[in-house]
TrEMBL record:
InterPro entries: Metallo-depent_PP-like (IPR029052). Residues 1-18 form the signal peptide. Gene3D superfamilies: 3.60.21.10. Keywords: Signal. This is Calcineurin-like phosphoesterase.
């Protein structure tokens, strides 16, 4: 706990004018994606991700966040596949933060994923990627982890928080595939139930709601100029497309809207999941919340987010990486 005290004090301290200097960070996700029936394509995809890591190093962001899905949905959930991204992450010359996606564990029960036990795969990810209270990358930065400060949720080593130039950042483990929640009547399509899935979802969902509340409470207490929330899941897929499942997202989305509106200052939601660039304000009751969805799958690009904490609209966006495979918005 003593090693976390400086970050806690930073979160709770008043914002100093010198802290609110502009900076940039990068976000990407849903890469690398390979397809077992196209091995040459996989080699090219991995090469594109390696090139992207070098492009990110040249851009020199304050840090980079991978918002989940480090393997494709049709890949086997083997140890080797799950550790592939670790090699890419170690190429970063700056801090790199990772939050898991559904392809790494919740969907691993499927036949073509190898019929793994999802919770065993989650335990593997936690043991390999979240060993201590620091980021990945060659220059790791300290992180405040929920598991270290919230006795009610000791398993959530992947939920993290940090501060950059007074802006509060948080990752929360909210994944695609209905957030790992078994389907309920009305979900379309019906989400199959792996053994223990509902209990796991309920525990992680409670942890996510608590971490979200604590993030905004600390940001309010510190008079932070802005908050950035990062998850893997496309929380607004059903609203955009008129179909799909939503029972694993509705409570979290409502909580996010409520906390963002009460905070009153700029909030940025960053996620992946649907594999194309999207930038909008999806919550009418929280017009201060901006959402971006990073590209993914064949579109191997990162989004560079320039942040001016003192500006009324602090966010601006550019892209890093090759733009020859841009995906159009769709459902």
């Amino acid at each position: 706990m003593r090693r976390l005290l400086p970050l806690l004090l930073l979160l709770l301290a008043p914002v100093a004018p010198a802290a609110a200097q502009p900076f940039s960070f990068a976000a990407f996700g849903d890469v690398p994606y390979c397809r077992p029936w196209a091995p040459r394509e996989c080699v090219e995809q991995e090469a594109r991700v390696a090139d992207l890591m070098q492009d990110l190093n040249r851009a020199n962001p304050a840090f980079t966040v991978h918002v989940g899905d480090t393997i494709g949905g049709s890949e086997l959930c083997t140890d080797e596949k799950l550790l592939r991204a670790f090699a890419f992450f170690t190429l970063a010359n700056h801090p790199l933060v990772y939050t898991p996606g559904d392809n790494e564990w919740t969907d691993c029960w499927r036949d073509f994923a190898g019929r793994y036990a999802p919770q065993e795969r989650l335990a593997f990810l936690r043991a390999r990627y979240f060993r201590d209270a620091s980021s990945l990358g060659r220059r790791p930065m300290p992180l405040l982890r929920q598991a270290d400060v919230d006795p009610a949720h000791p398993a959530l080593v992947e939920n993290a928080r940090w501060v950059r130039n007074a802006v509060v950042f948080a990752t929360l483990h909210v994944t695609g595939s209905n957030n790992g929640r078994p389907g309920i009547p009305g979900d379309t399509p019906v989400v199959p139930q792996a053994p223990g899935a509902l209990a796991e979802y309920e525990a992680r969902h409670a942890a996510n709601l608590a971490w979200l509340e604590a993030t905004f409470a600390d940001a309010t207490r510190a008079a932070a100029p802005a908050v950035v929330v990062m998850v893997q899941a496309d929380l607004f897929y059903v609203a955009r497309c008129g179909r799909g499942y939503d029972s694993g997202y509705a409570d979290f989305r409502s909580a996010l809207a409520r906390h963002a509106a009460a905070f009153g200052r700029p909030v940025l939601l960053v996620h992946g999941d649907s594999h194309f660039w999207l930038h909008d304000r999806p919550i009418a009751t929280a017009p201060n919340l901006t959402r971006i969805m990073v590209p993914g799958d064949q579109d191997v690009r990162a989004v560079m987010v320039a942040v001016d904490p003192s500006a009324a609209e602090p966010w601006s966006f550019t892209f890093i990486g090759r733009d020859d495979r841009m995906a159009r918005p769709g459902c």
